[in-house]
Design a protein that fits this description.
The chain is an alpha+beta fold. It is about 25% helix and about 20% strand. It has two domains: about 90 residues, Beta-grasp domain (Ubiquitin-like (UB roll), Roll); about 60 residues, [2Fe-2S]-binding domain (DNA polymerase, domain 1). A hairpin with a 2-residue loop joins β3 and β4. The longest helix is centred in the last third of the chain and has 14 residues. Bound molecules: FE2/S2 (inorganic) cluster (2 copies). One FE2/S2 (inorganic) cluster (FES) binds next to loops. The site of one FE2/S2 (inorganic) cluster has 12 residues, from loops.
Length: about 170
């Protein structure tokens, strides 16, 4: 039997604290009970089935779990689900529409910026945040913008070219 201590806080019969949170993900409000130590990447993948967000190092080093939190790129392995209460989260599933890919996704495909694809969701969300705050970045600014995202396959050049192309810039010289 569980005991409800308040409307938003509960200790279940396993002795684990759980909290009632409402998190807006890709424009939809989700209300769930979560453990105090549930990290956002696990909430997205295991509770909401949004498996486009990838678990990698789970230590904040690789960037594969990057999502946008109120428009800013964050490592969702380092953020608790309870900390996301009331925030707007965008995952890779929220970047495209049912009809069209986002221009970044199109350019990643066009420029060969995806190989195994494990880094791609996080990379695209970091790039999206970059282009929102800086619509015409330089090559170096793109490098800086994705510096928290590790890719083990592509060598980065095609990723940077794809992001520059998505910003409408000529990339033939790079
Ligand atoms: S899984 Fe989050 S930074 Fe690596
Ligand atoms: S495409 Fe494989 S890790 Fe980036």
């Amino acid at each position: 039997m569980s005991s409800m201590l308040s409307e938003k806080f509960l200790i279940d019969n396993d002795g684990i604290q759980r909290f009632l949170v409402t998190i807006n993900v890709n424009g939809i409000d989700y209300t769930r009970m979560v453990k105090a130590n549930t990290v956002l990447v696990n909430f997205l993948r295991d509770e909401l089935d949004l498996t486009g967000t990838k678990r990698g190092c789970e230590m904040g080093d690789c960037g594969s779990c990057t999502v946008l939190v109120d428009g800013k790129p964050m490592n969702s392995c380092l953020m608790l689900a309870v900390e996301a209460e009331g925030k707007q989260i965008i995952t890779i599933e929220g970047v495209s529409t049912s009809e069209n890919l986002d221009v970044l996704q199109e350019k990643f495909l066009e420029y060969g910026a995806i190989q195994c694809g494990y880094c791609s969701a996080g990379m695209i969300l970091s790039a999206k945040a970059l282009l929102t705050r800086n619509p015409h970045p330089t090559y170096e600014e793109v490098q800086e913008g994705i510096s928290g995202n590790i890719c083990r396959c592509t060598g980065y050049v095609n990723i940077i070219r794809a992001i520059l192309a998505a910003s409408g810039q000529e990339v033939e010289n790079y």
